Amino acid sequence: MTVAAPEPKVNMGNPVPRYDAVVKVTGRATYASDMPLANPAYAYLVTSAIAKGRVESFDLAGANRVRGVIDIVTHENGPKLKELKLYSNGGYAGTTIQPLRSADIAHDGQIIAVVIAESYEAAREAANRVKVSYTAVVPSATFDSPGTTTAAAKGQNSQFKEDPQVGNFAKAFEDAEVKLTASYDTPTQHHNPMELFSTSCAWIGDNLVIYEPSQYVYGLKNGVAEQLGIDADKVRVVNPYVGGGFGSRGSMTPRTAIIAAIARRLNRPIKLVPTRDQGFTIATYRAETRHEIKLGASRDGKLVALRHEGAEVSSRPDPYCVGGTKTTTRLYACPNVDSLVSIVRADRNTPGFMRSPPEVPYLFALESAMDELAVKLNMDPVELRRINDTTNEPIGGKPYTSRSLMACFDEAAKAFGWSQRSPEPKSMADGDWLIGYGCAATCYPTQMGPSAARVRLQRDGRTRVEIAGHEIGTGAYTIIAQTASERLGVPLEKVAVFVGDSELPPAPVAGGSNSTASTCSAVMMVCDQIRQRLFKAMMPNQSLTDRAKETVGIGQTPATRAAKSDRSLDLEKAFDALGAGVVEEYGEWKPEDAPPDSFQAMHSGHVRLVGGHSLKDKIAYAFGAEFVEVRVNRFTHEIRAPRLVGAFAAGRIMNPRTARSQLMGGLIWGMSSALLEATEIDQRTARYVNDNFADYLVPVNADVPGVEVILLSEQDDHINPAGAKGLGELANVGTNAAVCNAIYHATGQRIRKLPVRLENIEV
Amino acid sequence: MSDNSSSKRSGFDRRAFMAGAGIALVPLTARAAVQDPTPAAAQDPALPVEVTLRVNGQDKRLRIDARTTVLDALREHIGLTGSKKGCDHGQCGACTVLVGDRRVVSCLTLALAAEGQEITTIEGLATGDHLHPMQQAFIDNDAFQCGYCTPGQIMSAVACVKEGHAGSDEDIREYMSGNICRCAAYPNIVAAVKQAASDIMKG
Question: What positions does the domain Aldehyde oxidase/xanthine dehydrogenase a/b hammerhead occupy (chain A) (predicted)?
């Protein structure tokens, strides 16, 4: 075992190397823009240089003179596409702002023309020669910009139904012995996955193949079909490997149908590889947020009142919000809770999911406030969490299916050396460096969605698993293979897994950390169907009573019981008994509490996730605790984070290797979010300023010295058959607050606005 | 920037480089830039030029636009798609290949400028089914997740060891900082480079 492959504890799978490891280290993994196309033409986007207004005219003369130019598509000659509908409104798109439909411009960097040429170089040159005359209108950039409008999220966003409330907050806060009121801000951030937002489209007769990095191939397939007005069965989306998602590829963007329509018109495959800066405006992002937290507590630290008010920026037409109050109002025991989420509309592209959408900004506010409260109470912040730990969420009183929050705090505190901390701010130093220790809780809802799978088993043990899941770096191939291998009792190397193709049985979006629970539960179920057929063949002498049971559906036959148990199968004997060479099964699994239209929705590319607080009589979350050491130079104010330690409990850990890697990456994401990442917006023009990898800071190797991930054993039999809680979005939730809490400890300065840069430190 | 190995240690930091070069805050690709008129046909860069690239020990004769980068030549004309486009600006390192022993960001290197030199890509690293020690070390240490930056990381890592910059964790972190991994597998990448460096030294 290496550090990368931790020894499995109770209820953990084996830390086997990744299924896709060899293709990924040899350059043979084929991402969307790697797919070979026969005689492709190359597309290059022209994007708007203003954020609001209209295109008055194009001068295409210079562009058309470039050798190799085939076509220049604008709103004047653009493809006729059906209107986009938002995914939350029965559609598939992450935005309803639809380029090339009219001369109107709704945001900076909106697609206004697509140049098609024989080569990438010619397309790029011609795009740069497109001259555009605009009529510009002064845009509203963000919070406090003139012209924005603000309204409660409830009532306009169909996925934000309620502002959670309980008890009488106003009175309890007024009467509280200790009170805290504080405001927090989080910045605009862009996912910046390494793979660009590429799209290749090729028509074979009436059938369309799309190569595009997607976190939801069924959504994209159905969405593009709807926009083109063709049968969804004629559209196929293929992406066996996705170069990072982080939420940016969860819903359809407008580019895909545009490229598909141009490819049809030109009767030629089209390849689009947009630039890094275009990715800032043709896809989604995490919008900036503002928060006000009010906490009231008794002197001994018990919360008596909690209010969380959040505001989020969205685009003019789309009421997107993340509404993290659903989590922050339920995290700690508190009898009087109030909350409100508002949406502020500005002239921006529509925001969307970004890794841990609701929890990252909202827990930054709550977990910073908890630290501030601990200071007011003169109490250890870990103990404050312990005093307010709960087995039932306070809004509806529903029990957590399992909750290892304090076990995580205790394990991580021990590994970190929390007891070595001297609580007074500015009391620890090493030469010119002020040292600070900080901590925060982290959590993420356990979600699941309906999923289908097809499994084929051969007499020699060779197994083929087909499921339209997504390998975005999470280890999907690996854990699906492990699940089938364990359930069927065949060697891992005999299992072949196929994901990332909309011709395969549908799986949910790879978002909301649901994939492991959903896909593995489906694969387990279908493997059990195979076992059942084989056991039945091997156990022909069932009694009449057994048969009767089976017929009227009471109880289970011995073969069924055997199939669902861990009893091993002699494959050769079973196949001989069955008299077949191959057994193939297809099945559809849905979680408890899934809505009645789940399977129908699953096939048409609509997500029906359940979990978190939305379960009927329980609430399911994964938890963790994070500790950070920061060092702040007392002269230069440079901030470093030499140590990040996190302990996490997330039900069954399918593979400690891939789980650890994802949590490690999450911790680094969290540190990055606290100290580096922000998309700067020009307030006058509502344009993104730092839209490239040199100016939008993400961590490089030198920024990340020490990360320790501790996986806790946890068993939860109340969530899904796989017993897994998602963990892809768990680790980067608490880190923002942990870093700021550590900076407070180092410097005595409380910073409530992210990211923290050296110019914000005033030691 | 296209030649990492010749950069001084301080200049090796991607951010220090960009700030020093004064490029910060200026968008590098014009959106609908206004430029005048078409160049004379005789100088038209879109007219194909002949170039022979030596890639992984094989000569590849190409007729390409003179502005084609090594990266686009590999990906669009030779069919070697292992080297990845992550920014096309030399900022992310996903396209890193070796030119001779030097690591080079192939998106900032014109194919014409690489003629006559030995180019090694990720596809040329393994010998048949026998992985290069760096590839094996990346597997053993789970030094990737989505895998998109991985070819660039591995090529960079091979050069990092050859340059003698894999002597300590701190050195590895510093000299591997030209390659962004958005999944943030960094600690595992350091472990992989360390393992491979020791394997390579042992021969």
Answer: 26-138
**Structural domains for chain B:** 49-124 (3.10.20.30), 126-203 (1.10.150.120)
Query: Could you tell me the domains of chain A?
Result: 1-29+400-446+620-758 (3.30.365.10), 449-607 (3.30.365.10)
Mean pLDDT over the full length of chain A: 96
Which chain A residue's Cα is nearest to B186? A701
Q: How far is CA A652 from CA A452, A479, A497, B32, in A?
A: 21, 12, 21, 52
Tokens describing residue A709: 């991930």
Q: What is the DSSP letter of A452?
A: E
| Cα–Cα nearest to A324, from A188, A187, A151, A443 | A443
Rounded CA separation B195/B193 (Å) = 5
What are the pLDDT digits (tens) for A558-593? 888 888 888 899 999 999 999 999 999 999 999 999
Tell me, yes or no, if A83 is annotated catalytic.
Answer: no
Annotated active-site residue in A7, A729, A759, A762? A729
Residues of B in contact with A48 (CB under 8 A): 31-32
Residues of A in contact with B136 (CB under 8 A): 25
A362: left (phi over 0), alpha (psi -120 to 50) or beta: alpha
Question: Collapsing DSSP states into helix, strand and coil, what is residue A758?
Answer: helix
Closest CA to A291 of A248, A334, A341: A341
Residue A95: strand, helix, or coil: coil
pTM as predicted? 0.94
| B44, B131, B184 ranked by CB distance to A704: nearest | B184
Euclidean distance between CA atoms A532 and A535, whole angstroms: 5
Distance, CA of A757 to CA of A352 (rounded, Å): 25
Rounded Cα gap, residues A24 and B122, in angstroms: 10
